[in-house]
Amino acid sequence: SERIIGLNGAPGESDGWGVYYRARAMIEAGETLTMLCIGEHDRKTAPFILDAMDASARGGNTGYALALGQDGLRRAVAERVEAATGVDTTAANVMITTGGQAALFATMCAALDPGDTAVIVDPYYATYPSTVRGAGGVLRTVAARPSKGFQPDASDLSAATEGARALLINTPHNPTGAVYSRATMEGIAAVCRERDLWLISDEVYSGQVHEGAHLSPRALPGMAERTLVVGSMSKSYVMTGFRIGWVIGPEDVIAAMMSLANATTYGVPGFIQDAAEIALRQGAAEEAEVAALYNRRRDRAVAALEGSPVAVSPPDGAMYVMLDIRGTGMSGEAFAMALLERERIAVMPGESFGRAAAGHVRVALTVGDEAMAAALRRLAQFASR
Ligand code: PLP
């Protein structure tokens, strides 16, 4: 089962996920670690969201929900997307899913016939390979280089997508924190038009931008009809366990996805959808607070590591900091494993997100200021040694 998440290597080959499983085993054995390896908030879901869920369930919304989602929530998502992008969007363009992950799977199932190729950008969010393969697709990767701020190059994309059916991108990006520039996005859009590709745009961190602005490719010319956007409440509203997300796409694709919902989840619980609608309609302050929290933590982490032997380029978005540890002469995996064993600090090796982030480690900004400052101090001292 470990290989369900650990996906990069051939069977038996190391792919960096050993660090995560070792950390979990240490916790289960009663050890105390500083866990900076997964994107799980230390903050609690806001009480007004919990109250909305409770009131909805007690009010009787506990039966089967509509497979594509409740009208109210689909409308709330559509209004938000239209306001953010200027692209005409109605409830008919929205499917509610059990989190961004189910949205990713739905988009892959919609875009690919068995045997079709989907291209993903390396480094990538760790579930992408199994999502492509689970939908019957063939996986191809294209590297985004550290020297280019992990922004994929249009000519590399063009070469990699020959004969492909879909391209999956993610911005703001996990693990690197890259926020794709307008130029990057226009290059991506041009490749998709030229190669007649579906573009799947994972925007689950769109609410967490520290620098620059998030641009949804659906807003670019000729892209609304070929773009499937993946969104989620998990990160922006601290609702990871609610499992609520969505796909935005052309009406006919959304309608066709109903058969997938019928075959799998049969809809997202109505009381969860009611809570999500309240969060979207009344949660601007909460969303802003969450964004500000990670923004402050990012600034502090970057400042704390200044002058240390690990290089850190400030991430433009999301809730992680990538450290370039190549100066230590260690691989990301060796560094992370040694840091775990000797300092009891768990970070993710870059290798667990593909090959392009080898020699890096990802630090999730998911503990409070004091614990983070102490962990980064020890990490820097460890790197010096
Ligand atoms: N996409 C990216 C890039 C992520 O980092 C994550 C979660 O960490 C997801 C999708 C899945 O999010 P959700 O909790 O909405 O399923």
Spatial shape? globular
Percent of residues in helices comes to 40-55%
The main β sheet shows up as: 7 strands, mixed
At the fold tier of CATH, the topology name of the largest domain is: Aspartate Aminotransferase, domain 2
Overall average pLDDT: 94
Number of helices, counting only DSSP H or I runs of 4 residues or more: 14
Quote the beta fraction: 5-15%
Low-confidence stretches: 1-13
Please identify which CATH superfamily of the largest domain we are dealing with.
Answer: Type I PLP-dependent aspartate aminotransferase-like (Major domain)
Description:
The chain starts with a helix and ends with a helix. The chain has helices at residues 2-5, 18-28, 47-58, 71-85, 99-111, 128-134, 154-160, 182-195, 251-256, 258-263, 270-282, 284-304, 332-343, 369-384, and strands at residues 34-35, 94-97, 117-122, 138-143, 166-170, 198-202, 227-232, 245-248, 311-312, 320-324, 345-346, 348-349, 360-364. By secondary structure, the chain is of the alpha/beta class. Residues 1-13 have low confidence and may be disordered. α2 packs parallel to α13 (332-343), α5 packs across α6 (128-134) and α12 runs parallel beside α14 (369-384). The protein contains 14 helices and 13 strands. It folds into two domains: 2-44 and 285-384, Alpha-Beta Complex (Aspartate Aminotransferase, domain 1), CATH 3.90.1150.10; 48-283, Aspartate Aminotransferase, domain 2 (3-Layer(aba) Sandwich). A seven-stranded mixed β-sheet has the order 2-8-7-6-5-3-4, sandwiched between helices. The chain has a four-stranded antiparallel β-sheet with strand order 9-10-13-12. The site of pyridoxal-5'-phosphate (PLP) has 13 residues, from α5. Pyridoxal-5'-phosphate binds next to α5.
